[in-house]
Amino acid sequence: MKLRYLILLKTLAIGVIPSSHPNTNDQTTLTEFIEKETSIAWQGILNNIGADGALVQGAHPGIVVASPSKSNPDYFYTWTRDAGLTIPAIVARLTQPANDDHALDRILQQYATSQATQQAISNPSGSLTDGTGLGEPKFHVNLTEFTSPWGRPQRDGPPLRASALIAYGNHLLTTGQTTTLAVASNLWPIVRNDLAYVTQYWNESTFDLWEEVRGSSFFTTAVQHKALVEGEAFAHALGEDCRGCAHIAPQILCHLQEYWDGGARAVRTNLPTSGRSGLDANSILAAVHTFDPEAPCSLEDRGTFQPCSSRALANHKAFVDSFRALYGVNRGRGVGTAAAVGRYAEDVYQGGHPWYLTTLAAGEQLYDALYQWDRQGVIAVTAVSLPFFRDLVPGIIPGSYFNSSDEYVTIRDAVRQYADGFLLVVQEYTPEGGGLAEQFDRDIGRPVSAVDLTWSFAAFLTATARRRGEVPPSWGALGAGPAPAPCRATSIPGHYATPVVGSWRVHDELR
Ligand code: NOJ
Ligand code: NOJ
């Protein structure tokens, strides 16, 4: 009687809570899913960009709207961060062979022009005169200032926008599609303002990318450093001068090291820690958005946070593990198996569920690392990264495994399978129509919070591009370290000027 009751209970439980996950390690369904979802993600992004985007009526040309959702939450705004993270995905598409889609060039040029206007709009963070207005996180889609209370300033916006425009500018320069002069006159004035903002304000407190806590934020520091390094090279290519970039960048790289918690083998993403563990997708996003395919994995304690570095791998494990027991959807996903991940374990925003874009980024970091290992021909398992590797290859010991060894192949295949697992999680909780919202319910996996989140779609496109081995050009991380010691919090006052709007000739030149 007792036994039968138990069996019945067990059967019922299995009926409600899946303890195994249907697609796990099914490569065929994953490839099919990626193919189908790629066109949905593309359309999803285009739908959210003005003026022609189907879901964002009233949006100014080139304005990237965060989501069409107008209530609970109201995301019908343009965030400098979300836009700055979406534009590179569009540039990457343009750089694919046999893709000279003039419609995409038009969108990128309209984005640039819209940002020239946006930079000059005075807002609650300040104005362009002293650069302070550049730290404003979001604007109305018709390009007017948003005046309600908000977590401001957010100092990741300007460097992300600079990097997005530099990516497009470099694309135009390397393809010879347009003259250096056209890039210099249309993109550089906007980029110069954003770089000046970074050199002047990088060390002042900021709201983090989640717009919640004030202080230093790892993601913000990482993208600030990258923008100055590539800004210096971009200026040089244009015959311009990036005032202070070369001087300040090493100090930012120095500051970046200060977030590392050696005991926890993880990044404390916010300083002060605000009572949180510090394990946060902030650091995973920092790794994938400062990934440099040509950078070495080493330079451990004085370098950039490369996806293949021991620190970034140890941090990946600590971060992913922090969600395993937290979400019902992770039942049956033990250590070494991919899991659904959110922003950070303590999160309660919109229910504090797992996010699509963070789960995708967890996979993306590993595809990046795989690319770097293959390029360098060696995987280093160190004392710091050992726990990460042990979960995937039990019994592995520290050492350098060259690509001629069996161990190299074993590790590589295990990491690849682990990486695919994150995409399989996303596949499992993507609804029939393929729309990617912001979050998916922690117990039943159905989409929650903002629908058709532009950033979710962009995260899908970059993660799956890396899976195919498509990587962005080097941004110069190789030459950027080691960081000096001790750190010096120096700053250089910027010069700001209203960028000239509407001078694009590039599109006409292309015709
Ligand atoms: C909330 C997220 O925390 C923030 O990073 C994002 O910019 C906005 N939503 C808009 O997507
Ligand atoms: C430690 C200081 O407390 C902080 O203000 C500064 O940003 C970093 N060092 C980097 O120099």
List the helices and strands and how they pair.
Elements: H1 2-16, H2 27-47, E1 77-79, H3 80-95, H4 102-119, E2 138-140, H5 157-175, H6 180-186, H7 188-201, E3 206-207, E4 214-217, H8 218-238, H9 245-257, E5 260-261, E6 266-267, E7 270-271, H10 281-289, H11 310-321, H12 356-376, E8 378-381, H13 386-392, E9 399-402, H14 406-428, E10 439-440, E11 447-448, H15 454-467, H16 506-510
Antiparallel strand pairs: 1-2, 3-4, 4-7, 5-6, 8-9, 10-11
This protein binds 1-deoxynojirimycin (2 copies).
Structural category: mainly alpha
- The CATH topology of the largest domain is given as Glycosyltransferase
The percentage of residues in β strands lies in 5-15%
Most strands sheet = 3 strands, antiparallel
Walk me through this protein's architecture:
By secondary structure, the chain is mainly alpha-helical. Helices cover 46% and strands 6% of the residues. It has 16 helices and 11 strands. The strands form 5 sheets. It has a 3-stranded antiparallel sheet with strand order 3-4-7. Strands 1-2 form a two-stranded antiparallel sheet. Strand 3 and strand 4 form a beta hairpin. The longest helix is centred in the C-terminal third of the chain and has 23 residues, at 406-428. The chain binds 1-deoxynojirimycin (2 copies). Residues 66, 75, 79, 81-82, 209-211, 455 line the site of one 1-deoxynojirimycin. GO terms for molecular function: glucan 1,4-alpha-glucosidase activity. Residues 1-22 form the signal peptide.
